[in-house]
Design brief:
The protein is α/β, with parallel strands linked by helices and about 325 residues long. It is built from 15 helices and eleven strands. Helix 14 runs antiparallel to helix 15. The model has no long low-confidence stretch (mean pLDDT about 90).
Length: about 325
């Protein structure tokens, strides 16, 4: 059993990564249904929260069926971060996660996200202040370091633990790498193997097959796995990993009809939550994966991603289902 504070999780839990414009309530709900043990919100700007910016506040929406759920915030100003903690607490999440890993320029340029990797002392002092400011467990998501020459993740993780961080998720790339090249899990394993570490250490980056999740568990000895891009448009991935852990075999992949039904549910949930315009627009990024591997799919995809009317998108789903129905196309292996 793995514990984040007093939250009990199964052995080697699977966590849905916080992904901007992806990890919203509809998608989190579908991932939870399909085996995610912990889900995280999109990252939320502390400055946006204290200004009461509509988009930031909307991201605070969480639902009982998601629990345990973590709200992730980012920022580099102590006062703003502490005030945002007070705002976040009112929505009663199970976990507050600090983003010290986002590599995007507009975040980094403000010294937030992965930008704070240039100032480990600030990273530690911010974490300590937030731990003291709330009774909720504080966790951290970060990267190996700013660049290859500044990787100090073993020291950083230990210092974060020492000021009260309850778990750490580490993406196996530096900020300089962005999302290029391969994730390196060896330094994450060094964090876990540090005899002074006693909080959970979760790995993140490039887990897109059950075998890779198993490697992260068995070869690198990590406490759990945070899954991001592999789940986009494919929430079944969590259960596929769990089935593989139990049996050593792949779970039967969903039929095209089942994939279509999931996409249909996803779109309807998004419309119910965001309204017809944003709901249609912000679900588009999932369709390529929902229908991955379907031959001659471009014609259908163009209808799905260019129409602003939900009726047209649902009609495109119906066409795909009618055409391919019970066909199964493997996503893995």
């Amino acid at each position: 059993m793995v514990k984040i504070g007093n939250i009990e999780l199964p052995d080697f839990p699977l966590l849905l990564a916080p992904m901007e414009d992806v990890s919203d309530p509809p998608f989190r709900a579908l991932c939870k249904e399909n085996g995610a043990d912990v889900v995280y919100t999109e990252f939320i700007s502390s400055e946006g929260l204290i200004r009461d910016a509509a988009k930031s506040v909307m991201k605070l929406d969480i639902y009982e069926k998601e629990r345990p759920v973590g709200i992730q915030i980012f920022g580099a100003n102590l006062d703003s971060m502490l005030r945002s903690v007070e705002i976040v607490e009112k929505t009663k999440p199970d976990i507050i996660d600090i983003n010290f890993g986002c590599p995007v320029k507009k975040v980094v340029s403000k010294g937030a996200g992965a930008g704070i990797l240039k100032d480990v002392d600030l990273m530690v002092s911010l974490t300590e202040a937030m731990v003291k400011h709330t009774n909720l467990p504080i966790t951290v998501k970060t990267r190996l370091g700013w660049d290859h020459d500044s990787i100090r993740i073993v020291e950083v993780a230990e210092r974060l633990q020492d000021v009260g961080c309850k778990a750490i998720s580490i993406h196996g790339r530096t900020r300089a790498q962005m999302y290029k090249g391969s994730a390196d899990w060896a330094p994450i394993s060094e964090v876990k193997n540090n005899q002074r570490m006693h909080i959970p250490v979760f790995g993140n980056g490039d887990v897109d097959t059950p075998e890779k999740a198993m490697e992260m568990r068995d070869r690198y000895g990590l406490d759990g796995c945070m899954i991001g891009r592999a789940a986009i448009g494919y929430p079944w991935f969590f259960n596929e990993v769990k089935h593989y852990f139990k049996t050593g075999e792949y779970l039967e992949v969903p039929t095209i009809a089942q994939r279509t039904e999931m996409a249909r549910r996803h779109l309807q949930m998004a419309i119910d939550w965001k309204g017809p315009i944003l709901g249609v627009f912000e679900t588009r990024r999932h369709y390529t994966n929902y229908f991955k591997g379907i031959p001659h799919f471009k014609e259908h995809r163009m209808k799905m991603v260019t129409s602003d009317d939900a009726k047209d998108v649902f009609a495109a789903f119906d066409e795909v289902e009618a055409k391919f129905g019970d066909t199964r196309i493997p996503q893995i292996g």
